TrEMBL record:
Any one GO molecular function term: phosphoric diester hydrolase activity
A Pfam entry, by short name: GDPD
BP-aspect Gene Ontology terms: lipid metabolic process
SUPFAM superfamilies reported in the protein's UniProt record: PLC-like phosphodiesterases
InterPro entries: GP_PDE_dom (IPR030395), PLC-like_Pdiesterase_TIM-brl (IPR017946)
Residue ranges occupied by any GP-PDE domain in the UniProt entry: 34-276
Protein name as catalogued: GP-PDE domain-containing protein
Organism of provenance: Candidatus Dojkabacteria bacterium
Amino acid sequence: MKQLLFVLILGLAAYLLYASLPIFYVPNEKTEYLTIIGNKGAQKIAPENTMASFKTAESLGAGGIMLQVQQTSDEKIIVLDYPQLNRTTSASGFVKSQTWENLQTHSAGIMFSDDYRYEPIPTLEEVLSSIPTDIKIIIELNENDEYYPNFYENIASIIETSGSKERVEVVSFKNSILKGFHEAAPTIHTGKIMYLKFPFTNIIYDTTPHTEELTFIDSVYIYYNFARKDLIEEYKNNDKNVYIWGANELQLLYKFSYSGIDGIVTDHPEEYLRGNV
């Protein structure tokens, strides 16, 4: 019995190690069109999820930006990472309890630096109308339309009204949110962010894009520790765009630029785009 248990534990450990192995090969040629996507803009240079941050990423040459959205009590879609306001703004409480008029009096940059004291909280409309149309916009959803009434429909309406459908992709960690948004707006591109932690371990893995429930997605966003060659090739062979996220170190950015992926979502777009790798 002890031997069987040992074999099972050893087998599980071997599988988890294999699943967590980062990509290890380097093809002969660098990926020709690798899109560098600034998560929350250029958040190390300017306050995250602000127009200052997005414009900085644009000026650096980023091919895309990832942002997160929330909804006010009067159903205005604003750009902010968390439902709570106090982490990055001068406001407090929850977004869904505040009106847009009230939030316009608060700063989205004061927590970053006093130089950005007058940086406002942006709306999704403002971002889509201000960022050049050749820059990809990835909208991450972490809340559903039960938490925010009409959330999916309001986001879809802004995307369609702004003429941004071709360059926008709505993504989430949560399958339920992706399915709900797809039902509300089936013609808007969607993508799955892969990140699942095994209980009581530091092992992160997620196989849900393999399942039939997400056949509609256009892209997968793989946490870099799991971006193995076979996984990338599997999704590419199934006509999915493949992006890597979480790869912020220069060495990793360099390695993944040769992996055949479509792009990298990074907190440090300035490092890659300034030619430091």
